[in-house]
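I have been asked to look over a protein record a colleague put together. The record follows directly below this note.
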Amino acid sequence: MTTPEAPDGRYFAARSFTEDGGYKVTAIVFDPAGAQQTWYGCVTRHGVLIGSFFCADRVRQRDWHVVTSEGVHIVLDSPDIHPIGESVAVMVLTGLRDGSDAEVDRWADEITRRLADENHPKPTN
């Protein structure tokens, strides 16, 4: 049995950036010099894991999953906002303070409302 060679830096890179409020977002990016597809990411706040996100359909970069540090899967269930993307996953996780069930439910509802409003703005007279 042969062991496959591990990919080197030409194929994967870790990228990090900081958001307001002490959040740090770290993402594992495939093909950093070309396609730049995020495969996995995590969000921490002051060094404590808030949650992670990953793409189930890497080819099309859709079907993103968001999971809190408590193992709660956050579902944004409005048909108006699917498929969510990496930016929405980051927005969801950076809006959480502690990841409690009540907070997750409240924040998922709020994000769903915000994104639906962005996708379907109200007409102005």
Q: What stands out?
A: The chain has a mean pLDDT of 76.
